[in-house]
């Protein structure tokens, strides 16, 4: 009987393994097709950013470039648009906004999750309500307030806005992560003489490297790709972020526009590569 049962169990395991392998292959095929579809516009942009305006207009979109007009397109962008100035401005806004939001959101999440404060749920809902409403409703009141306070069309105003708009999401993600950390760890640290700030910086933040990296990347990308607020709260070419500068660029020179779009995408890609180790460390931690 035992041999029969073991044979049946072995056959079931073999059948399940075959089914799981088949499902995995199907999923991989679907993901490969989706990745190819997503990658086609990138291939189109790379092919055409080496073409000149005449070659682009007269030839096929998918034809290989006959020459190399890349530097000419870069010179056109430099002379006729403020893309590189916009990239520097967006780098300042995105970096400051994301970093300040992570710092403030982390402290708020730790306070709501583990400190003994009154009406914790009330404060959580007050902060989280910043993500409930559509962002468009913030345009008129913030525009009016910035005009009265002298923050309209200033770098300080953009940094303050992006910091404030990113805090609710950061707090929400990290609060959910911090609630999963055992209170016994905090109590043990307090018995050893650690204060609340030391517990946050030496225990919670190192354990939350992966979610902190995720929210840092997501909010940096959000600030970098923002167009609506960049157009509304700025008017000077020196202050405008990169997406607002791209929207004002002459679209008649398509190769130069594609070159500018690819150049504007590089910082977020490089930032993702820089944070990739933290993602892997977080997966290893959560898998234990």
Number of DSSP strand runs: 0
Cα-atom radius of gyration: 25 Å
Name of the level-1 CATH class of the largest domain: Mainly Alpha
User: What is the domain tally?
Assistant: 2
**Secondary-structure element order, as H and E?**
HHHHHHHHHHHHH
| Number of separate helices | 13
| CATH topology (level 3) name of the largest domain | MetI-like fold
CATH superfamily of the largest domain: MetI-like
Strand content: under 5%
Could you tell me how far the N terminus lies from the C terminus, measured between alpha carbons in angstroms?
38 Å
Helix share bin: over 70%
CATH architecture term of the largest domain: Orthogonal Bundle
pLDDT average, as an integer?
Answer: 84
Q: Can you tell me the overall shape?
A: globular
Structural class: mainly alpha
**Major β-sheet profile:** none
Give the low-confidence spans: 282-288
């Amino acid at each position: 009987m035992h041999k029969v049962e073991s044979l049946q169990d072995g056959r079931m395991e073999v059948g399940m393994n075959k089914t799981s392998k088949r499902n995995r292959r199907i999923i991989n095929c679907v993901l490969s097709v989706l990745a190819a579809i997503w990658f086609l516009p990138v291939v189109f942009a790379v092919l055409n950013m080496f073409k000149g305006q005449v070659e682009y207009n007269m030839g096929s979109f998918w034809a290989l470039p006959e020459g190399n007009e890349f530097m000419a397109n870069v010179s056109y962008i430099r002379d006729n648009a403020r893309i590189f100035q916009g990239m520097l401005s967006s780098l300042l806004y995105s970096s400051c906004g994301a970093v300040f939001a992570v710092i403030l959101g982390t402290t708020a999440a730790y306070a709501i999750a583990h400190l003994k404060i009154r009406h914790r749920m009330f404060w959580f809902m007050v902060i989280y309500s910043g993500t409930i409403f559509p962002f468009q409703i913030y345009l008129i009141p913030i525009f009016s307030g910035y005009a009265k306070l002298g923050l309209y069309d200033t770098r300080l105003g953009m940094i303050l806005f992006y910091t404030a708009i990113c805090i609710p999401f950061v707090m929400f993600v990290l609060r959910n992560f911090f609630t999963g950390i055992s209170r016994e760890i905090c109590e043990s640290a307090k018995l050893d003489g650690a204060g609340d700030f030391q517990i946050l910086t030496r225990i919670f933040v190192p354990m939350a490297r992966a979610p902190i990296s995720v929210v840092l990347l997501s909010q940096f990308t959000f600030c970098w790709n923002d167009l609506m607020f960049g157009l509304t709260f700025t008017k000077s070419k020196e202050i405008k972020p990169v997406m607002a500068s791209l929207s004002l660029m002459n679209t008649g020179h398509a190769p130069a526009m594609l070159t500018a779009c690819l150049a504007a995408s590089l910082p977020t890609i490089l930032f993702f590569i820089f944070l990739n180790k933290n993602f892997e460390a977080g997966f290893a931690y959560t898998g234990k």
